[in-house]
TrEMBL record:
Coiled coil: none annotated. InterPro entries: Ribosomal_bS18, Ribosomal_bS18_CS, Ribosomal_bS18_sf. GO terms for biological process: translation. One of its GO terms (molecular function) is small ribosomal subunit rRNA binding. Binds as a heterodimer with protein bS6 to the central domain of the 16S rRNA, where it helps stabilize the platform of the 30S subunit. NCBIfam families: S18. Belongs to the bacterial ribosomal protein bS18 family. This is Small ribosomal subunit protein bS18. Pfam families: Ribosomal_S18. The keyword Thylakoid does not apply.
Amino acid sequence: MMDKKRGMRRKKVCQFCADKAETIDYKEVDKLRKYVTDRGKILPKRITGTCAIHQREVTKAIKRARIVALLPYTAD
């Protein structure tokens, strides 16, 4: 991947694959906050660097945490 303005770009590594995480729990709010913007939107995998499998799990965990009111739907 060569970019004319910035030089070589390094591919992002999925944090969950690197940690060999078994599951992503919706109760781990501190970990999930890294994947949500300050406005409450879920960050896409091209920005966070997570793989497709873990991105789906992160999305499910964030939505479950919102239902149980551990994470807000939007910023106030």
